[in-house]
Every structure is written in C-alpha cells, then in structure tokens.
Amino acid sequence: MSDVRQHADDIHDQFSDHIDVSVDDVEDRLTTLVDEYKVPIDEARRSVTNHYLEEAGLDREDLAGGSSEAAKIEDVDEPEQWIDITAKVIELWEPRSDSVAQVGLLGDPTGTIKFTKWAKSELPTLDEGGVYELRNVVTDEYEGRYSVKLNSTTVIEELDEELEVGDDTSVIEGALVDMQSGSGLIKRCPKEDCTRVLQNGRCNEHGEVEGEFDLRIKAVVDDGLDAHEVIFDKDATENLTGISLEEAKDMAMDALDTTVVADEIRNLVVGTYYRIEGPTFGRYVLADDVEELDGPADAEQLLIKARSM
Ligand SMILES: [Zn+2]
C-alpha cells in the first residue's frame, strides 16, 4: 500500500462513523496536496483531517487516538504506523535542525526508541525523566532503525508514575572505523558519584580537582548499514588492547604525555572487525561482550568473487 493510501485509510477510519466519505475521496484530497502543491505528507494529512473535522462538526479531541493503537516499543517494526505509547524520556539530544523542537530517546519496559518532535507541531515540552502517554505518534524507519515522530495531531499527557525502562541489548558486527576524542588514558573527577571526565584538569561541576586515571574507548563501529557509537570501559579496553591501566600510566609517564596511549590504542583497534554485545545507553552501546572477528562476515564471498573476475 502506498504511503498516501495508508494515510487515507487511517483518516477514513477516523471519520467513517461520523460522515459518509470513501477512502478514494480522502486519497484524492491527499494526492492533490502532495503531488500538485508539494505539501509534505504530515502536513497534508493534518489539512485533510481538518477539512473532515469541519465537515463532521467535530473537535480534534473527539478523534484523538481514533485510529492509533496502544503499542510497546519492541513491537515497532513497520514505518508509517499510527500508535499510542506510554514511555519515559530517557535522554534529550541537541536538535540539529530548526524544524525539530525536541529529539531524544524514549523507553518503556520493552526497549528504547528515538523520537522527534517537530517544531511546527507546537506541542508541550517533554522533560528528561518524565513519563508520558503519547497518543497518535507515527513510526518511521531509516536504514533499518525505527523512530517515532510527534506531530500536530499527537496528544501528550504527563503521567504521575514511574516507568521501568528495559535495556535492549544490541549486537553489532562490524569494523571499528574511528576512535573519538576522550579515548585512551583519561582522568575522572574523584568526587562522590561524579565520575565526570576532566577537561584540562577541570570538572564541569566541581572545578579543578585531582583526577583519577581511567581507561576507555569511545569508538565508531560500522556494520555496513549504520555507524554505531560504542563505549569500552576500563575492563573492555584492557581486554581489547592488552594494555592495562597501570601500563597505560607508565606509557604516559615515560612520554610525559597521555596522548601516546590513545595513539597506541588507535593503532591496535581501528580497522579491526568486532562482534560487540551490550546494553544501549542513550546513543551509546556499552561493550559488555566483545569478540574479535577475522573480517566482514562476507569477506570470503567477496574474495571468491574478486578471484573469479
Ligand atoms: Zn566532578
């Protein structure tokens, strides 16, 4: 079914109890807006919905959730579905575009999913840590990853309850293609429960402190479809590189420079293939279980192909 037809179907479902309208009529209106006036489908849907609201003498609230179904995050496996979810805002990220009011990560007991709230939807602001019932959000898919979009038909209700968020374990197989800054031998703030990484000996919260050394890798792993940001903690980094925290400190001491550690680690890990398993935390996957691979899974196939040419 085409996108437009799917939207027409949804709108028709919302109004079929109220007015006499066919799916074809709805589709014609949407098609005119999308094809002739180049209106984005979300906007076209809103406009057409408004038209039928007026015709039926209804308010938007009368329809809220009309065609969408309550869903769990783990069940989202199709784009362009209108659903209701109850979720906690785990994290908010900096929007990269003016058209986006808020972007971040939602979680429920079954998993996590990215959300985008359009600026033009003029919806209330979601707070980090808040639990909300979100009615009439639409699912989207990009390169195999799902997200939900909050649009002008979305109804947001803040709930006064806690919601346990399930960690959804990711498995990534791919090449470690880049190591980000903040990797290698780092210093953390020693204040209780702070553990922030120091920048030039300073903690963002506590100012200048005597830091404690730690080892970590912030890496980008490319599985051929998508780039994933992966964090290796001290243990994972020691296992991956064979360099212990004590050895890293000695290396830095000898060179009077901590960057030698990052350089050494980069040489060891960049370009290597790994199978990484671990929980998703915000936009990062924490590398709990790491296995080095010989190469891409289909490398042999590629070689056979190359030889036959
Ligand atoms: Zn601190």
Short précis:
The chain is α+β, with helices and mostly antiparallel strands. The model has no long low-confidence stretch (mean pLDDT 87).
Summing up helix and strand content along with how strands pair, one would put the structural category as alpha+beta
**Distinct small molecules:** zinc ion
Strand order of the largest sheet: 2-3-4-6-5
Give the H and E element order: HHHHEEEEEEEEEEEEEHHHEEEH
CATH class of the largest domain: Mainly Beta
GO molecular function: DNA binding; helicase activity
InterPro entries: NA-bd_OB-fold, SOSS-B
Keywords: ATP-binding, DNA-binding, Helicase, Hydrolase, Nucleotide-binding
GO biological process, one term: double-strand break repair via homologous recombination
Short descriptors:
309 residues; alpha+beta; OB fold (Dihydrolipoamide Acetyltransferase, E2P); 3 domains; five-stranded mixed barrel; five-stranded mixed β-barrel; 8 helices; elongated; binds zinc ion
